[in-house]
Write a structure and sequence with these properties.
Helix 3 crosses helix 4 and helix 4 crosses helix 6. This protein is globular. The strands form 2 sheets. It has a 7-stranded mixed sheet with strand order 1-9-8-2-5-3-4, sandwiched between helices. Strands 6-7 form a two-stranded antiparallel sheet. Helices cover 45% and strands 16% of the residues. It contains 10 helices and 9 strands. The two termini are 26 Å apart. GO terms for molecular function: acyltransferase activity.
Length: 308
């Protein structure tokens, strides 16, 4: 199914019987979002355990990634990490429901934001800023809370399911003053010219066309090069965004990158990947290990590590 924005469509477009099961699932998600968080967290962990047991393909992708990135880790330790990852992702699903269906004030007390003055200094230059980060399982909830402090315009990727898009796009529109579909380059440029902050998650494989190859945990992977060119063209400040789940709640953190861009896209990509590795280390289980990070190979047509 083609990925298309649903922002300009009313609910009338999605009342066909073929969507009823999806709407039922959304209704259940809505009701679950009212449960005490301790119960939702347990349900998320249970969902993750079920996904680990039932999703052979995702489990395979996760295991391949962990084997590549942590070759010195024992098989038992990697299996334990994989299970913890799936549980973390399950919790992330319920955090997503909370951002869609509940007021974010319910989780304000659980969130701490470090170094938020960095954004004020960056925007004082008048060129806008580009916030870059990685995909961790709490991306939706932490992103929602970032919007409490920063007028940030997130770059998002459309989903294949039109009902998911319909709900997601509308809820994000209520949270953020502007959202930008990732193919909308003009929208990004407009936001930066207006001295706004745009937010990219830069750690996924978007193919050969818009990427350079740089090491990630010692293996070459396709890393988007668009950020280097965008920063060079616009003179926007580049901020590194870290976030995640802790024992006490959630944390958000920003730091401005110095000497970026360098003029060398491979060097820039290498720097970003190393910074993301450093973010992953203290919370390995929260990273998106079920994404095929090494899918695009440097040699066209070469087999991928995910091939069976």
């Amino acid at each position: 199914m083609a990925k298309k924005s649903t922002l300009n469509k009313s609910i009338i477009h999605f009342i066909s019987p073929k969507y009823w099961l999806t709407w039922l699932a959304m209704g259940i998600a809505y009701l679950l979002s009212f449960l005490p968080w301790s119960i939702q967290k347990k349900l998320g962990e249970t969902l993750g355990k079920a996904h680990y047991s039932l999703s052979k393909n995702r489990r395979h992708i996760c295991n391949v990634n962990l084997r590549l990135c942590f070759p010195d880790m024992s098989d038992a330790a990697r299996k334990k990490l994989a299970k913890a990852h799936f549980e973390s992702m399950g919790i992330g699903v319920f955090e997503m429901f909370a951002t869609w269906f509940q007021d974010r004030s319910k989780t304000i007390s659980k969130v701490s934001f470090h170094d938020q003055d960095v954004i004020e200094k960056a925007l004082a230059k008048g060129k806008g800023c580009i916030i870059i980060g990685a995909h961790f399982s709490s991306i939706d909830l932490c992103g929602t809370h970032m919007a409490r402090y920063i007028d940030v315009h997130p770059i998002y990727k459309l989903q294949r399911n039109p009902i998911m898009n319909w709900v997601m796009e509308r809820q994000r529109k209520n949270i953020f003053t502007k959202t930008i579909e990732r193919r909308n380059v003009r929208g990004v440029m407009t936001s930066l010219k207006e001295n706004k902050a745009v937010w990219y998650a830069v750690d996924q494989d978007y193919g050969r066309k818009n990427s350079v190859f740089a090491p990630f945990y010692g293996h070459q992977c396709a890393t988007i090069s668009h950020i280097s060119r965008l920063a060079k063209t616009t003179k926007a400040a580049i901020l590194l965004y870290d976030y995640g789940r802790t024992d006490k709640g959630y944390f958000l953190s920003l730091q401005e990158l110095e000497d970026y861009p360098t003029g060398d896209e491979v060097l820039d990509a290498t720097k970003i990947n190393k910074l993301i590795e450093a973010q992953i280390e203290p919370k390995k289980e929260q990273y998106f290990w079920t994404h095929r990070r090494f899918k695009t190979q440097e040699i066209p047509g070469a087999p991928t590590p995910y091939d069976k």
